[in-house]
Design a protein that fits this description.
single chain, mainly beta, Lipocalin, eight-stranded antiparallel β-barrel, 1 helix, 8 strands
Length: 136
């Protein structure tokens, strides 16, 4: 009977291999486009839309629909999509953008057309990509 051979994997290879799934997934999806998500505020239920522009792994979202707190046209999310989930920041404010400041959020890309935002001033919200061609 032949002796059983043990397979040795160098630690450096194992560390790189373990890191690859997150890196590959982060590079798989381009978040550029128009997105929407439902929100409930003190003033009722609404669906808000945002346009995301991704340049490399830098991500910025600008509101297409505004509300009593943050008006349309405001760049309200910024982050670096270098893993999944990834850390980002969101603009939070009182009525009329009073006291506007950045709060930490976590973005988890669920698939090509959905991502979840956790934390910040909007709580846990799932965003959905809008179909069709858009200027991004």
């Amino acid at each position: 009977m032949a002796p059983q051979m043990k397979r040795i994997i160098p630690l450096s290879f194992a560390v790189v291999f373990a890191a690859l799934p997150g890196l590959v997934q982060a590079q798989t999806y381009n978040l550029s486009g128009e997105w929407e998500a439902p929100f409930t505020t003190d003033y009722g239920f609404r669906v808000e839309q945002a346009r995301i522009r991704q340049n490399g792994n830098s991500v910025q979202a600008t509101k297409l629909t505004g509300d009593e707190y943050v008006p349309a046209g405001t760049m309200n999310v910024r982050g670096v999509f270098n893993s999944n989930p990834f850390a980002a920041e969101q603009v939070c404010a009182g009525l009329g953008l009073e006291g506007a400041h950045w709060e930490k959020i976590t973005i988890t890309v669920l698939d090509r057309d959905h991502f979840k935002v956790t934390g910040g001033c909007s709580g846990d919200v799932i965003w959905k990509r809008l179909p069709g061609p858009h200027i991004s």
